[in-house]
Automatic annotation (TrEMBL):
InterPro entries given in the database record: DUF1023
Gene Ontology MF terms in the entry: hydrolase activity
Keywords: Hydrolase
Name the record gives this protein: Alpha/beta hydrolase
Any Pfam family the entry gives: Abhydrolase_8
Domain named DUF1023: residues: 270-454
Organism of this sequence: Dietzia aerolata
Source species, domain of life: Bacteria
Length: 539
């Protein structure tokens, strides 16, 4: 055998040994993590008299299945209520433990597949040293195995996502957050603070990719006003705004921080979900879904941008806190969220074109599944359970309705300035929202130009006339010294009846709600002509 061939074989074997060493090290860490996660799940199950079977099922332990029923039968009403509560807690624990076990099993299956792939590659001589020194070849082999042993993608199920990171070794978790953060941007069951960290890591990576793409286009001769180049510039502007507006200065307390809960690039922009305050600990979470022409990047002329959204959230936040204080619930906390994780109709186009595009249900239909999952994640990641309200304005009311119909959970909902609530062409059915009849609201300001569109019933009927929605007032309220809102964009004016009502619903304060004043609305909204009564519009 020649010296060069011997040297090459030694180099290849060093690479193979390096790969096997990396596999063994990773397996030790991973098995330890999975064992700890499974032990925790078993301990939690034992607290409720449950056991985990070999195939991952969570069943009643011996002699525990009828304990609650027997206790309820032998005792009086108090014992019956206690037994019912114990049974509900047990079933909730069963659901949570089942999701945890499924997450563990999914990661274990991925570990097995990765191990098989690495061993097969090693057996087939797939790890090569390319004539490197033993040390360099070993490092090359370790790096190759490490790439093959990376963390699996998060599970689709929101409940399983809650436990997904607990099944990963520390090295895998860190690799995921820093090297592949995009995988967590829409994994809404994962701790929002971890998701925020990952998204903030993704932004500079995304920016670098966009700059490379723009440079490639310019080298190919595309002018700065070319649609493809403009689309990239819009995305870069969106990222700039996100970084600027979501910045938390040093020392900012958790309850005042802004969090990036989602990030979604689309063809000519980037959407996001941004929270003010910590949604995991807040007692009351209000999610605002804005309407047409909304962009992440600055749009000062229209005010339909992230800066404007965060200003609305701040006003709503203050109103909610005022309501909690006035009702003796100052200890309860609030968080507000803007859902902008979609492409909105009417972006960057003349008004008439924007209105025509807003007449299409496509944007709401495409966003609805993601909104539903985002809401599900806000419920799932709440540490003590929250009161979750969704506030849909303008076209955002249609998106909100479709998101709730797609399974998004909410305790209350307000549709305001709404063109309609059903995209299918069928009449709107309020029961399809999954929200109780006492917590479904609609609001329409006087001189609201959306009335012109609603007159044609483009989306399943006129929301303000729906008997299954409680109408809130938006006019002047002398008793509480509140101003009235008119037109399409004054619902969040401070010291207004409309903002008061939004805050009352969002804090679960029905006694504070100001009901609809039909007489005042009619006087302010309509003018009489020889041909009948017609609404005025305040643009």
């Amino acid at each position: 055998m020649s010296f060069s061939r011997l040297s090459s074989e030694i180099s290849d074997r060093a690479a193979t040994v390096g790969a096997i060493k990396e596999l063994v090290t990773s397996l030790i860490d991973q098995v330890k993590t999975l064992k700890n996660a499974l032990d925790d799940a078993r301990d939690h199950a034992a607290e409720f008299g449950l056991v985990i079977t070999g195939d991952g099922a969570v069943i009643d332990g011996p002699g525990t299945s009828d304990v609650g029923a027997v206790a309820g039968t032998l005792g009086g009403p108090a014992a019956t209520a206690a037994a019912s509560a114990a049974k509900a807690a047990k079933e909730a624990a069963r659901t949570e433990i089942t999701a945890r076990v499924h997450a563990i099993l999914a990661t274990a299956a991925d570990v097995e597949a990765d191990t098989t792939a690495i061993l097969t590659k090693a057996a087939e001589g797939g790890f090569t040293g390319d004539g490197m020194s033993v040390e360099d070849a070993s490092r090359k082999g370790r790096a190759g195995a490490d790439r093959m042993f990376e963390a699996p993608v998060p599970p689709r199920d929101i409940e399983q996502q809650k436990h997904y990171l607990d099944t990963l070794s520390p090295e895998q978790r860190q690799e995921l957050i820093t090297e592949r953060p995009y995988l967590l941007a829409e994994a809404y069951g994962i701790d929002p603070k971890v998701r925020d960290e990952a998204i903030r890591n993704w932004i500079p990576q995304l920016r670098e990719d966009l700059l490379d793409d723009r440079a490639d286009l310019r080298r190919l001769g595309h002018a700065s006003n070319d649609d493809l180049v403009v689309a990239i510039d819009n995305k870069l502007a969106d990222l700039d705004t996100l970084v600027d507006q979501a910045h938390n200065p040093p020392g900012t307390p958790d309850e005042l921080k802004r969090y990036l809960l989602g990030l979604k690039p689309y063809e000519d922009g980037i959407g996001a979900i941004v929270a003010q305050n910590d949604i995991t600990t807040a007692d009351h979470v209000a999610v605002h879904v804005p309407g047409m022409t909304t962009t992440t990047r600055d749009n000062p002329e229209a005010g339909t941008d992230l800066i404007g959204e965060l200003d609305k959230l701040s006003k709503l936040d203050r109103q909610m806190e005022d309501h909690l204080t006035s009702t003796g619930r100052r200890h309860e906390t609030v968080a507000t969220v803007t859902y902008m994780n979609m492409k909105f109709p009417g972006q960057d186009m003349p008004v008439l074109n924007a209105l025509a595009e807003a007449g299409q249900p496509t944007f709401a239909d495409e966003a609805a599944p993601d909104l539903a999952r985002a809401l599900e994640g806000m419920k799932a990641t709440s540490t003590e359970g929250n009161h979750l309200t969704v506030l849909g304005h303008s076209y955002g009311s249609l998106t909100t309705s479709e998101g709730l119909q797609a399974g998004g959970p909410a305790d209350a909902v307000v549709f305001y300035g709404s063109p309609g609530l059903e995209s299918s062409g069928e009449p709107f059915d309020a029961d399809s929202l999954g929200v109780g009849p006492d917590n479904r609201y609609v609001m329409l300001a006087a001189k609201e130009p959306i009335q012109a569109a609603v007159a044609f019933d483009p989306f399943g009927g006129r929301p303000q006339d729906n008997p299954d929605l409680t109408r809130l007032d938006a006019g002047v309220n002398v008793e509480r010294d509140l101003v009235g809102s008119t037109g399409h964009s004054q619902y969040e004016v401070e010291e207004s009846t409309s903002l008061w009502n939004l805050g009352a619903v969002a804090t679960g304060s029905p006694d504070l709600i100001i009901g609809f004043d039909r007489q005042q609305f009619d006087q302010q909204n309509y003018h009489q002509t020889p041909f009948g009564r017609f609404p005025d519009y305040d643009f």
